[in-house]
Amino acid sequence: MTARRSNVLTVCMVLLLIYFLLPLFWLFIASTKTVGDLFSSFGLWFADDFSLLSNIRETVTNGGWVFSRWMGNTVFYSVVSAGGAAFLCALGGYGFAKYRFRGNGAMFGLVLGAIMVPTTALAIPTYLLFSKASLVNTPWAIILPSLVSPFGLYLMRIYAQDAVPDGIIEAARIDGAGEFRIFFQVALRMLAPGIVTVLLFTLVATWNNYFLPLIMLNNPDLYPITLGLAQWSSQASAGGGTTGAVLSLVITGSFLSVVPLIAAFLLLQRYWQSGLASGGIKA
Amino acid sequence: MSVNTTDRLGARAPSRSEVRRRGRGVSHARTGYLFVAPFMLVFLGLLVLPLAYAAYLSLFQERLIGGTVFAGLDNYTRALTDPRLLGGMGRVALFFLIQVPIMLAIGLLAALAIDSGLLRAAKTFRLGIFLPYAVPSVVATLMWGYLYGQDFGPFAQLAGKLSLPAPTFLSSDWMLGSIANIVTWEFTGYNMIILYAALRAVPHDLYEAAAVDGAGAIRTAWSIKIPALRPALLVCLIFSVIGSFQLFNEPQLMQRLAPSVIDSAYTPNLYAYTLAFTGQEVNYAAAVSFLLGAVIVVASYAVLFMSTRRSRS
Questions:
Q1: A269 vs B232: CB contact, 8 Å cut-off?
Q2: CA A246 to chain centre
């Protein structure tokens, strides 16, 4: 392709990029400031005092390391949920794509229809069921509902259709490999970009989930980071004289909580983009 | 991998493996069930069952005398005439009609720009615009809440420097727009990535043919790329229907900043949550959730139906 560049277009896109990155820039700047500077210095530039490290220390250790605990909970919930969901989706998507069986189309259609079921409409009845089963206020209450990803299954089915050629499965069968051995030793590798995509998007969904934990948990020791930050922020906006310190915790905590996911997206971009590219087109 | 197994196990008598294959032809179907069973079980237990349970609960009412009694569709008739629920539904419908076209238009234009080859550093734009998607909506809302704020928000600071009145982003006139801005900020990049991925899959000989016919970048985008994006746009649109109608996090968190502006029925979901957890009206909350789900499914199908009809004509 010839390298004709358009400056007008580039300028427009720079403006757009500024809109999307400025709040994050602000968050970073704000987490380097003392509470006093937050109010007295201009929001979009550093103050004289650079207190990022002391803010981080304060945030991480506050109230008996509770922030660290929330962070650990978030990592645990999202890694287990995303791993489980991606595995179920890979297995199921491959099954729907590569086997003919009675009800294949009907079951897949049912799952496809469920993409439209809003998760928050499900959350209240799930809470009621879980409270009957005494699962409320346990990690299961967060992990189990996050294992279902209809869109992930859809994506994996589309992906498996193209990424794993029937000829290779046939060849492996002729070689005498069992169906599950074929899946684990041959297909799984070919499905990797699709799996990374589902993994990453479920990870984000669980990491960022707020409604479900809000309903399911009332023990702060089990909170994920989203619920913890929301609790701190309501303390900050409700409290009188003690507000300042908590405000700084909310801001620095918010900053710390976005870093891991952004890093994951940047590091894994090659995989999830190719996974989406094959999944996104055939809707 | 396959080469390896062929070396070890291949080249046996073909007749034997033929027989084995045919013998297993039936059991392959059974293996198919085994593959999809784990997903389907979790799906039934955690999606279908709660839905069925919500449907069941919504048919009962808690009465002062007599406890929980079967009420038929009473909860639904109550919901359909509940001004608070209808108000919330109207609000999210308005939100959908204004916010989603803006978000999809920006996402589409950004995807086209990045795909056009006319940009320097296209990859930076792609990742930068997508980045907010990785930010939890709680953090996004808190952050924008501070940015909107009068105390140390940069907009208020700038206005102060210019001796102008600070913009009142959290007033009742502006609130829906302020929330729409947060949602746009969060999800434009996600839509852009889906559209961009779909654009990458458009066969390149179509572009060459268009170029031979003398079409410029804008003409190619309008006549070839946008029609090719129809299915991907549909996916984005349906996700946006789902997202808009179940709006919860942003209004719930903004409520603390502006309690007089956002009441407990600001969105249907906030209403259902309030009913179930502060009002203890579990049955009515189930009916509201169920109705909300039904509205979303109907709206999604309406979108689907309209777009397939338009593409046929």
A1: no
A2: 26
CB B248 within 8 Å of CB B182 = no
Write down all domains in chain A, each with its CATH number in brackets: 72-272 (1.10.3720.10)
Q: Is-contact A160 A63, C-beta < 8 A?
A: no
The span from the CA of A24 to the CA of B250, in Å, is 17
Complex ipTM: 0.90
Q: In A, which residues are within 8 Å of B12 by CB distance?
A: 176
Which residue is closest to B292 within chain A, CA to CA? A121
So what's the pLDDT on residue B158?
A: 87
Q: Is 60 exceeded by the pLDDT of residue A283?
A: no
- Which of A156, A149, A227, A146 lies closest to A193 in space, CA to CA? A156
| Residues, chain A | 283
Least CB-CB distance to B253: which of A185, A230, A279? A230
Alpha carbon distance B311, B32 (integer Å):
35
What is the H or E stretch that residue B299 is in? helix B282-312
Confidence of residue A106 (pLDDT cuts 50, 70, 90): very high
Say how far apart CA A242 and CA A168 lie, in whole Å.
66
For residues B135 and A258, the answer to whether their CB atoms sit within 8 Å is yes
Q: Is the pLDDT of residue B20 over 70?
A: no
Q: Which amino acid is at B25?
A: G
CA distance A266 to chain B (A): 8
Over the range B250-262, which residues count as b (16 or more CB within 10 Å of their CB) and which as e? bbbbbbbbbeebb
What are φ and ψ of residue B60, in 5° steps? -115, 160
The helix-helix angle for B175-200 and B137-148 (nearest 10°) equals 130
Alpha helices in A99-165 (DSSP H): 104-114, 119-132, 140-146, 150-163
**Interchain CB distance below 8 Å, B201 and A281:** yes
Read off the pTM: 0.89
Q: Which among B138, B189, B292 has CB closest to A229?
A: B138
A59 Cβ contact partners less than 8 Å away, ≥ 6 residues apart: A67, A248, A249, A252, A253, A256
